[in-house]
Amino acid sequence: MGRFHPRRRRTRVAQVTTRRQLLSSAAAGVAAAALPVRAHTPFPPAGPNLFIGTGGTGHTYPGATLPFGMVQLSPDTGVERWETCSGYHRGDTSILGFSHTHLSGTGIGDLLDVLVVPGTGAVRLQPGAADQPGSGYRQRFADEHAEPGYYRVALENGVKAELTVTERTGWHRYRFPRGAGHLLIDLSHLVPDRPGARPLIDEAMLAIEADGALTGTRRVFRWAKGRRIFFALQLSRRPDRITLIGDGDGEQPRGATQVTGKRLKAVLHYDDAGAAPVLVRCGISAVDAAGARANLAAEARHWDFDRTRREAAERWSAALGTVQVEGGTADQRTILSSALYHSQLAPTLFSDVDGRYAGMDGKVHRVPAGGAAFSTYSLWDTYRALHPLLTLIAPERTKQLVDDLIRQTAQSPFGPLVWPLQGKETGTMIGWHGVVPLAEAHAKGIEADYAAAWPAIRKRSFDFTAPDKENSRGRDLYDRLGFVPADKVNESVSRTQEYAYDDWASARLAGVAGAKGDAERLLKRSDNWRNVIDGRIGFARPRFADGSWWKDYDPIQLGHMPEPDWRDYTEANGWQATFLNQHDIYGQIAHLGGDAKFEAKLDALFTAPSTLPANAPPDISGLVGQYAHGNEPDQHAPYLYAYVGAPWKTQAMVRRLCVEMYKNDPDGIIGNDDCGQMSAWFVFSALGFYPVDPVEAAYVFGSPLFARAELRVGAGRRLVIEAPGNGPETPYVAAVRWNGRPWTRSWIPHAELAKGGTLRFTMARTPNRAFGRAAADRPPSFGRTPA
What b/e string do you get for 267-294 counting C-beta neighbours within 10 Å, with b at 16 or more? Predict the structure, then answer.
């Protein structure tokens, strides 16, 4: 996902892969030749590189957080550019300060709440220009270090900053040089919007409490319109004085204990800041000030920074220990660990220690005992691989998320979620993909009250008077015509296909709720994808309300109108949208003329010239032919060869993508990480399988990257994946064994892997074209196989 603000649109530099063949050995056409098995040597576990994704357009941040934690305490280097959507970019040369909330890998910026700026010398209230750090409070820096749950950096002003966290509190430790120093708390810090827009902050307040704590709040209208944040901040050393700053940087009278307005600041002065470290503990809440204070009281019972850091490291050690690998290169093991780390940053905790949270209906709710509420569901992206990954390696977390999705679906005036942030449905991207993790979890045996979500899902599906946001426009036309017409609603081709996929997931949930008639209607409507794929030319194509097709069709174009803001596809073109279908692949194979034509079409996708029109968004990146790995719509496409009996081509392409699209480098993620989706794709693919349709509860085999992997899959069960002798020269799967028995299918059910066991791949230099070729061995789709 990469919705970005037009004012910050950057000049697109296409990332084009120059090779046009799958792999040179793919054309060998000889029998598979497996390498002899070599005894593997255990490798020490590789830690993650938290700077992967902080360069390029990965949009990740390196700061301290816990798995799915409420607080993401991280440095901010800028807010003006699309590259700094997370507040940070590795290429920047100065740091503004350290704020407590961040988005990981998104294409829109928000959050960055409660910026803390350690300063010396004269107090500067404005950040200053990026190319002139001395003109404001931003500082050049050195010796930057990040590890799970901890971050440190040395600032040019002599301050050494360290950060760590609990779930709901941020901890800072500042070591000042001798002499005076101060902490600036900037409550006006945020990602800006276009000139002329309404003020982005209102109802802000800062107060000095009787116990010396600083509390405050603000309401923000950036991406999540009207979201609220409350904080309570305590200091290990009481300041010598505190100055409150109102709108227009007006200093409040000496002795003032409260200030209100829109853009507020506070300065905490120390006459001898270097006498001892200054520790800051800051609790946050989206509910109220009492919630922030309660979170702080519950999770900050001491002033031992190092103890908090150790506890954070232990939490991450357990989370990252769910997948351990041997083999590959040192960089590949680091990339895997980093991808696993990024896959466990979001959704983010949203309920306070007392269980209260800000609901999608604008009311305060409380989760049942043992439950939790979450925010930052990037569902257009994460239903594809991130949620399935959690269902496999952390089923107890999936249970928490599913219960929360059910509650928030019932509470939201817009029903099933698509991109909720801090209690607000942003309506970003298209569809209502919150139904997919629910249907997927049910298909994989996660127990929950799915029927409780059905009334809201039914309303979104069939009540065309219900309120819409951008994501669900054209529902009535979709139902009546069988497609969204391109002359009525933008992004119509992608909408039709993604609405059809949501119908497929919703049909499953309707069945769970006992709504048989609704389930049949949804199942029939899930066939609407074919109404925007012109079988005569073999492409997804804009179609108008009168049933006619766009005549001047070119598959590299974004749609029938050249204007940037009116497209017929969502962050895709005709090539990429042709392969959007995830749930009725055999129907699409037949629609496009059968196995041979579909296989040739896939070949053409990966070998077409990597050209894009001038109005293409930067999200369409990581091109191999016209396949765009840097964005989500067709990330399952490499695995589609298995459905036509040519899984060896999947193996070649997946291995190539794992090697070429991910690096142990700040620019190591080819596009936005999108709350872990890009990372989750790598984790699955490096292990050797992928959930093409999560609702189908099956995994299609690809090409494992490592010689051995061990996964914890819940309740003490272990899944071991072996590929002895695996290396860069062996991308092909010659044979598979499951728990010691031959396995001829090119896929495996989730139910098998979730039981634990040993999946063994025999890897080879050349393809075994017989493996997975038989119709009976091909993956299921739409509840059926071609056999």
Answer: bbebeebbeebbbbbbbbbbbbbebbbb
Q: Report residue 370 CA to chain centroid gap.
A: 25
According to DSSP, residue 317 is labeled: H
The confidence score (pLDDT) of residue 20 equals 30
Q: Where are the beta strands (DSSP E) in 416-490?
A: 420-421, 424-425
pLDDT at 133: 86
Burial of 430 (0-12, 13-18, 19+ CB in 10 A): buried
What does the DSSP assignment read for 102-166? --SS-SS-----SEEEEE-SS---S---TT-GGGSS-EEEEEEEEETTEEEEEETTS-EEEEEE-
Helices (H) and strands (E) in the chain, counts: 17, 37
**Pairing mode of beta strands 201-208, 278-285:** unpaired
Structure tokens at 392: 């496999």
- Residue 58: how many other CB atoms lie within 10 Å: 31
pLDDT < 70 stretches in the chain:
1-45, 195-197
- Residue 536 CB-density burial (10 A; 0-12 exposed, 13-18 middle, 19+ buried): exposed
Query: Which pLDDT score, from 0 to 100, does residue 3 have?
Result: 52
Q: Quick count: other Cβ atoms within 10 Å of Cβ 23? A: 18
R_g of the chain, CA atoms, integer Å? 26
- Concatenate the DSSP letters of all residues of 449-468 into one string: -GGGGHHHHHHHHH-TTS--
Q: Which residues pair with 424 in a beta bridge?
A: 421
352 and 168 Cβ atoms separated by less than 8 Å: yes
Terminal Cα-to-Cα distance of the chain (whole angstroms): 36
Given a contact cutoff of 8 angstroms between Cβ atoms, the answer to whether 299 and 166 are in contact is yes
> φ, ψ for residue 155 (rounded to 5)?
-90, 155
| DSSP, residue by residue, 125-142 | -S---TT-GGGSS-EEEE
Chain-centre distance for alpha carbon 655: 22
The answer to whether 581 and 570 have CB atoms below 8 angstroms apart is: no
DSSP classification of residue 731: -
Between the CA of residue 38 and those of 184, 307, 614, 710, what are the distances in Å? 59, 43, 50, 18
**pTM beyond cutoff 0.85:** yes
Q: What span, in angstroms and rounded, lies between the C-alpha atoms of 668 and 90?
A: 12
